[in-house]
Write a structure and sequence with these properties.
binds flavin-adenine dinucleotide, FAD/NAD(P)-binding domain, alpha/beta, eight-stranded mixed sheet, single chain, Polyamine Oxidase, Chain A, domain 2, 20% strand, disordered N terminus
Amino acid sequence: MAAIGEDRRKVVVVGAGWAGLGATYHLAKQGYEVTLLEAGPYPGGLVAGWQTAGGRSVEAGIHGFWYPYRNIFSLTDELKIQPFTPWTQSSQYSPHGLEVESPLFQAMPYLPSPLGTFLYTRFQRLPLVDRLSALPLLYAVVDFDNSPEAWQRYDAITARELFKQYGVSARLYKESFEPMLLVGLFAPGEQCSAAAALGMLYYFILAHQPDFDVRWCRGTVGEQIFRPWVQQIEQAGGRILANHRVTNVVEGAENQITAVVCGDETFEADAVIFAVGIAGMQKIAASSPALRRRSEFRNLSNLGAVDVLATRLWFDRKVHITHPSNACFGFHPTTGWTFFDLNALHDEYRDEPGSVIEVDFYHANQLLNLDDEELIPLVQRDLAGCIPAFRQAQVVDAGVVRLPRAVSHFAPGSYRYLLPGTTPFKNVFMSGDWIDTRHGSWSQEKAYVTGLEAANQVITTLGLGQPASILPIIPDEPHIQLARGVNRGVRSLLEQSLPAFWLP
Ligand SMILES: Cc1cc2nc3c(=O)[nH]c(=O)nc-3n(C[C@H](O)[C@H](O)[C@H](O)COP(=O)(O)OP(=O)(O)OC[C@H]3O[C@@H](n4cnc5c(N)ncnc54)[C@H](O)[C@@H]3O)c2cc1C
């Protein structure tokens, strides 16, 4: 740990999800005096887990760790923990039964992207002609290079419009792209930015053959990763205060924030990192005069967040499930859902006599108001729609976690309101899975990476300590680099020779 001695600088981090814990850990290791303020009762944010009164483990939805999550995997190596299952295969179901099986892509002979994804994915029903209708879309995949210009070009239209423009068949859209959007961006295609859709699909599926391979935690992420991580943060000198909801900041001279306000407590700060989700940041900006005077923070009210629902069902008998993770489509018009065989994934359920199944619903607004007694039979009915043996099984216990306005909504037109890592204040930095960054990762990996980026901004600003090394995403394959280079050249020639008259 770097010693800063007398000159310890105070940093306040707000929000203890992946982003806030990542920033806190790195800055504490560099000798900063870091206080992490978390509104909830536990660290973990959207990934928090806890025990019910009856001693059952539940969590805010099951979280997968995809092949490109290099920074998170490097963190768990540094913490010397082995929280993950082996890489798993997954399936997709509709009310007609099994639709798609994905192999372990890294175990298959390597083909240039996206050939492996196209050839090795085993579709049970979707005709070849529908799958081939995705080919013209490859131009948009090449054209969207995660630059600010590419975001501006594609963010104004919906993902559904994009797929329509490129001639994707109705069936491919309904049975493949829309389910991926519901699970990856938590919203149906007509409510997703085309830019976000292209970025997400490229990162998780298309960039390299093994990218869609996923592993899970061998228990709740809270137990497996956050508990040991929090211990090491505290050993490094970081202070984590739960049940501390930030409501305001104190503005000093020269565009700097000097303190963070939490109810009737005030925490002095040489630098501040916000690591809260969109809904949380909107509330802080609304209640803080210093923040709401800046248009960047005021404009956050143009952003949205999506409801999700996480349920866990304990059955009286074992029901056979082919693969541990499964995504489903065709059951609800605007809600996606997934189910997980926790007997296969979580150590604590391996010898359980009955099946323990997690069922998570995304864009679940119409389900949130149901009480548990109304909800559980609907969940069981959906499960039985995929695997009929669930119809006869009895639910002996259930946990329900409702998460209103929980996840970032990458709606069309939202890009201009997403904040970058820096703010109008010299010593305030932003992080989280909704921040505009050039790294190219998504979800948990993005949240963690932006936390490290914010820590590095603090180090540059306050001038003490070593920056965190952040692994870039795996580079584009050579043919994609070539196609992107040619496309950029043609685009810039056209932009120079044509008047800026038409809508971009
Ligand atoms: C059901 C579900 C399934 C998901 N599945 C996956 C998956 O399989 N793989 C994947 O990579 N990602 C998945 N995600 C997304 C992933 O959870 C998020 O991308 C990631 O956790 C975001 O981390 P974060 O640090 O940006 O924010 P958060 O986890 O939202 O943390 C923000 C923290 O700020 C706190 N906070 C808010 N307001 C205040 C305040 N005023 N004062 C103090 N603290 C405050 C909150 O309590 C919270 O703890 C899923 C999400 C859900 C809900």
